[in-house]
Amino acid sequence: MLLQKTGLLLSGLIMMLNASCMEKNLLPPDEDPPADPEISVSTVLTGYEIIWGMDFLPGGDLVFGEKRGKLYRLSNGTVKEITGFPEVFPSGQGGLLDIRVHPDYAANGWIYASYSGSLPGGSGQLNLIRFKIINDQVQNIENLFSSGGINTWYGHYGSRILFDRNKYLYLSIGEGGPTSLGGPKSPNLNAQDTKSNWGKIHRFRDDGSIPDDNPVLPGNTGPSSIWSYGHRNPQGLALHPETGEVWSSEHGPMGGDELNIIKKGLNYGWPLYSIGINYDGSRISSGHTAEGIEPPLYTWTPSIGVCGITFITSDSFGAWKGNLLASGLALQKLYRCVVKDNKVTEETELLTGYGRVRNVIQGPDGNIYVSVEGPGRILRISPQP
What we know:
mainly beta; Neuraminidase; four-stranded antiparallel sheet; 40% strand; globular
């Protein structure tokens, strides 16, 4: 009888322990894995030309530009033109390109912009300036950088501007030159020429001066503004929210759009290496990489025409937090890329049927803002509660 009671007691204790363990394994509602959000898409503004660059001021106003050289400010639902921007050279792929607000704007009032200007003889160059907006006018302009060189076909200017965590300033610029032909016999080797500013990602202090720890590249005797080289047409820059690394998106030829992590002094291969082919069908390289060439993190074939990129950092997007958004000009879509351990593990199409997607940023309100062409407009992607 005693053994029977002891057995019943042990059985009861085991059942109680199992129930307790099961309860401990159940996550409370606030610890459930985040879910994919339901989203809505709305139009912020429309009726403009190509909107290349845009950024938010600390108070929530949006500064954006048209490729043709017009600068605007959206404040409380009203758009005002900001006059006095320097004359741009809008031929080909040039014009007013990127816009970036200084991370300490509230203290210093600086806004940065890249744009194409003309050189004697009909060539284009890329310029980087900073300025202040005072009474709806561009004032206190400072010229920080000019590419010089030759860009006679007016293509592949880049261009994006980015600040890192230490407030160093990055500028991407395409290879410019006389042609975009790739391969060892290309007449345009700007991207491999470490004395040329074209086909590079540059790194500056916020006043345009060159940091002492910039790399000394082959053929040079001291540091220059060049941080990395071998780039074809990098039109996207973003800062990884966890690692602080600079990520870049780059137009390939036919196939071979690239996503890269930009590292000090590295050569990313163009025009000697690419998984894409030239527009005339000729091969660029037998392989994608070689010794001394940094391979891309991720590629798109066929080309999506990758342009602006950004990481989602808002908790309101649930499971999408930490994902990378990439805009696609050629295929006219916005792509969401799941990133784990610096690898793209999944890709989905987020926006389709809206037109050519030029740029994407996250606003201070946590929403995603997308510039689209045809007509030029800015869309807002918001998670639904």
